Amino acid sequence: MTKRPAIAALLHEGATYRQVRAVLGGGSPNVISDVRKTEAIPVPERTKYRRSVEETYALYAEPFGDGHARWAGPWAGRMPQICHPGRNGRKESALRVAFRMRHGRDAEGYVRPGCGVHQCVASGHLTDRVLRARLKNPSEVQA
Ligand SMILES: [Zn+2]
Q: 11 lies in which domain range?
């Protein structure tokens, strides 16, 4: 089985070689380079520096199962990571970005999936300290 179509698709989206390798779980840089030449895919103008964090989340959060999502983008250790636009854009946890997109506020404390699926990044499944406290004490939930 060849990964060339998948490599081509990622390169068309503006993925770097590193991102292609991260998504596909490896792959020879020579093959990736060959796909780019064969398919005449231009080298992107550092698109990763221009993409908003919301666009990056949408690009790499892959829905699966019953509303869950897995992260196909870059990782920092075990943390899915998003780079803010700009050449020296700060890096932020994709979980925090997704939480903010969903709830319109920054998460307090750690952000974790509340659905029980390991490493789920679906924005609607993420909880912060405030939401977890509410889930523990439903009587305090405001109608
Ligand atoms: Zn989930």
A: 4-38
